[in-house]
Amino acid sequence: MTTGLIPGEQPPEPRPTGTLPHQRREPDDRGALHVDNRPRSSVITARAAASFEPVGRSVATARSFVRDTLQGWGFADIVDDAVVLTSELVTNAVVHAGTHADVLCLRADDGVRIEVADRYPEREIPLQGSPASMGSPDREGGRGLQLCAAIAGHWGVDYTPTHKNVWFQLTLPERPVGTRAAGPSLPADLLPLADGRVRVAVVQIDRTGAISAWNEDAEELFGYAADQVTGKPLTDLAAWPHTPGTSTGIAEALQLSRWEGSYGIRGADGRVTPVYASHLRVRDTDGDPSTVCLLVRDHERAVLQTPLRVPASDAAPATDGQSTDPFEVFIGSPAPDDLDGLLQRTVERARDMLDGDSAFLLLATDDETELEVRASTGLPSARQRFARVPVEAGPGRYGSARMPAVHEDLLAVPGAVPLLNGTGMRSVVTVPLKVEGRLTGSLGVAAEAPARYSNEEALRLQFAADRIALAVESARLGELERLRRGSLSFLVEASDLLAGTLDRDQTLALMAQMTVPTLATWCAVYTIADQASEPYLSYVLHEDEELIDGIKSLLSKIPPPDPVPTPGARVWSAPGEAAHEAALRSSMRSLGLTGGPSHQVTSGIGPTLATASAVGGETVVLPLVARNRVIGMLTLGKPTDEHFRQEILELAEDLSRRAALALDNARLYSERTAISQSLQRSLLPPETPKIDGVEVEVIYRAAGEGNEVGGDFYDVFPISDGAYGFAIGDVCGTGPNAAAVTGLARHALRLLAREGLSGPEVLERLNSAILDEGARSRFLTLLYGELRPQEDGSAELKVVCAGHPLPLRLRQDGTVEAAAEPQPLLGVMEDLELYEQTVTLDPGDVLLCVTDGVTERREGTRMLGDDGLADVLTTCTGLTAGAVAARIMRAVERFASDAPSDDMAILAMRVA
């Protein structure tokens, strides 16, 4: 009879051995349970059984049996669920029913089935809706069946005249492909020994146990050719068992999905070669199963062997089924360098040793002032992991984690153990982990019932903790060393990335991308423009891009964190509280408690709840301090109920210091660039005047990255009615000093020219003004001229070329000639004798003026020069002034592949 049938009905026919029925209880709309009897069969590939006496300690022993069995099968993914259900069902048998409990573990191709049978069939299963319902909160029995309904994929109850058998089935999750085990780099003298060539025999066995494939290495190892062994059973060659104590036969091993171990192979010469084998059960596209066997010489087993862990069941039990040595419960721990596995195994065995309902282990920080939760079982571990509590506590808690403590009832002392608040645990025993007198951690076991533990249990747990403390500390130090090496590499890479840019926005993006998801689930960066400004939310990033907008909206509605310069991370609770309130409001709207159209309510529930979950965990703020000033805050967050570990916060603090300096450098660079660009614009004319009958076009290109002021300048301006002045010059050098001379020259030219002075007089007075600057003076090359359009359509130019590249004249017939003669540059000698030359431009003629950045454009040893510029200009016949200037600039840019190293200015004037 299965669960949900009326007691007293005839039991069903016995089910065939080796199959798993498919029975699932599913609630309908009213909450009633129904039985789904759709048949489905699964092939049993392995089984393990044990019987337990009707005593309380049998529950812990049964948990250990199931855990070791499933871990031995490689099913660590479902161990916790299986242990919880087994614990409840065995408790029902040995405590409530008072009979022996028979536990049977069945391994199938699609899951694991566990059966717990007691010898009290008259004790019926409570029915849903009955007065003695298993859902009644006042009823102690039947709660294990509720867990079966909630956790197991399929479950049920079978009755026989002498037994009641409760079973449940767990489906194996899909496992991603990845590294299962890895080892550190070792010096050559510590590596395993092997022959000059390691031969790996690959033997494939078909479903009947006969050899179907035999590779060349197998021929070399055992002396048989492939045609000699193909079709023969492997049992004809295997000397089984080679390893003492092996109870599984070769035929059984070939049927397992995976097996590793040692045995012997009889070679063609009659000798037995010890081998280490790794078997893997596979199937082809037609569904036919076979086993692939990899074989190496036994002394070369390191090539194939998976690191093995000794199961706890190998420890010698006492006559009453309980371990005589408290430390023996920890023998099955993982390798010492696997800290998380070691801690998890420790808390599970501590719970089983004291028959507790939960256990936890905390590790001390380096300064021994706080304890950090690193492993727990039977508790909401996601909420507790990496949470921190002080070692020394005030009234209401156990005074110090440095001493063993027993609490008979936590209800009498609320908050005595903060980790157990709201978990339903009543009694707890905690003991310290110490190495050489130094506190390294704390181990605790708790139970739901009060007064479960006494000093005797505390001594047992303390003895076990003393035996495991050194291994835990060794693994912790190893993990810390690996983390610090990884942190150093992380910081080096982060420094390189941050130093590679001076752009503020890119720096903000790099800060966030380096923290998410390596250090945190989400990140927000606040910036402060100056001391009088409020922090501004500048950048938000989450590992799920769909949640970024929701987090940004949430943070924008709450006050930013205070810009406190105190180093280190501090907890910021505002985002979590705001997310909780937003989620509560959304839930109330979804229940219609605030009124309004339902479709409007529903549309806002999803993003709000998702955002609340994303920012509902621990949130910390790190100040961004550069040059003794807080320039922003770096905010890191975790999803609901998660905490940061101390090492991650220390790494984030190191990163924040580097990021703050990079952000401040980007700010200074941006300010300098803005100032330089503003100054550069002030040194150039705001616009070019329109001259009747003359086309004027100017192209200016500043070299560098825009953060320096160039020394080249140009100007075209009206002097009087019908007369226009034009100039193009180059001040030696760049930067503020060159900019000062540039500004002096451009403004002095306009003032002196409008006073009615001739070109030579204008340049002579400008030369005197430059020399008066003293040490700040710079020499200046300058081409200055006056242009007057004529009534016949031509234009008259009076030009003075003071040390500047000569202007070129392009006639309509394509000939190019210099339009002036060279004269001394300005800013060097006091007495200059300058003169002006008169040039008449006929209609269609072009006058081209450039700075030396054009003529000195280089590609290796080649230079464009005056001749190269003239050759380009000859191709510009018939073009407008704008087209001429554009063609010259294109030719200059294409002449060399490198970026220009000098400013360039091009002034083209054409008589229309």
Instruction: Give the biggest sheet.
Output: 6 strands, antiparallel
Residue share in β-strands = 25-35%
Kindly, what is the distance between the CA atoms of the first and last residues, rounded to a whole number of angstroms?
A: 109 Å
Uncertain stretches: 1-40, 126-141, 308-336, 394-398, 595-607
Spatially, the strands of the biggest sheet line up as: 9-8-13-12-11-10
Based on the structure, what is the oligomeric state of the protein chains? single chain
Mean pLDDT: 78
Total of DSSP H or I helical runs spanning 4+ residues: 19
The proportion of residues forming helix, as a percent range, comes to: 25-40%
Overall geometric form: elongated
Q: Report the structural category.
A: alpha+beta
Could you tell me the radius of gyration in angstroms? Answer: 43 Å
Overall strand count: 36
Organism: Streptomyces aurantiogriseus
Region (Disordered): 1-33
Keywords: Hydrolase
Biased composition (Basic and acidic residues): 23-33
Please describe what this structure looks like.
By secondary structure, the protein is an alpha+beta fold. It is elongated. Helix 1 packs antiparallel against helix 2 and helix 2 packs antiparallel against helix 3. The chain contains 19 helices and 36 strands. It holds the Pfam family GAF_3. It comes from Streptomyces aurantiogriseus.
